[in-house]
Amino acid sequence: MGVLQIFDQSINCGITGFEDPTSGSVRKSLSLSKQLVHHPSATKLTVAHQDVPYFGISDGDYLLVDSSLQPEANDCILVEYLGENALVSFQEIQKQEDIVVQGVVSARFHWYRKGHSIPIHNSLKEFDLHELLIPPEQQHTCVLMRANGKSMLPIIDNGDLLLLNRSLSFKEDHPVIMALNGELVCKRLNKRLKKAYSDNPKFRSVYLSSSDEIRIYGCVSMAIRIYRRELRGR
């Protein structure tokens, strides 16, 4: 099973925050399988085939679905309705008849760079989630960080996990982790326009000049959201 370095420090998604982006950071080893898969025999990995903005889910995202969890308020739930799978809220399953609950979505993986295909499986006892998401050859180049703030909504919310992959080459307008004038931030970066900007239109863009101190640490390849509070930080 692979392990991943994790920094014990939040990444600010707004342009305010830390005086020193590196002091006090603590490196730890972490396995995404151990962190996110709590009931392997009852959990599957599937692909979202619809946008669900309220839950920050986009068509094509990978979803962990745990059939052992009892649906609760605020859950996103995978159901079968009229022969098709759909993602619905807890309130919707109370209103509709003939819905078959497949399981509760416990985590979502949004790829900013294309990921590996999901193998055919009956449960996550059949393969290692960590090594699917982060192949062994990339283990030493990846760091897991935690987002702070809401400027990168709807995909990155406060408390979400960000996979910083230092092996990826820079692409215009893709999210990066960078130190901007001593503050560690997650922003989309356009070098041609010299602009750092957020996904949330409520937050202003920052136009960069020669007086700004900038260091790019790497590209964000994936954003992970854990939906139930009690499942976070295990």
Give an overview of the whole structure.
The protein is mainly beta. It has a single domain (4-231), classed as Umud Fragment, subunit A (Ribbon), CATH 2.10.109.10. 7% of the residues lie in helices and 39% in strands. The chain has 3 helices and 14 strands. It has helices at 32-36, 90-95, 129-133; strands spanning 4-12, 27-30, 43-47, 62-66, 76-81, 84-89, 99-111, 142-148, 161-165, 175-180, 183-190, 195-197, 206-207, 214-226. Strands 1, 2, 3, 4, 5, 6, 7, 8, 9, 10, 11, 12, 13 and 14 form a 14-stranded mixed beta sheet that branches. The chain is globular, with a radius of gyration of 18 Å. Mean pLDDT is 87; it is low at 14-26. Pfam families: Peptidase_S24. This is Peptidase S24/S26A/S26B/S26C domain-containing protein. It comes from Vibrio parahaemolyticus. InterPro entries: LexA-like, LexA/Signal_pep-like_sf, Peptidase_S24_S26A/B/C. Keywords: Plasmid.
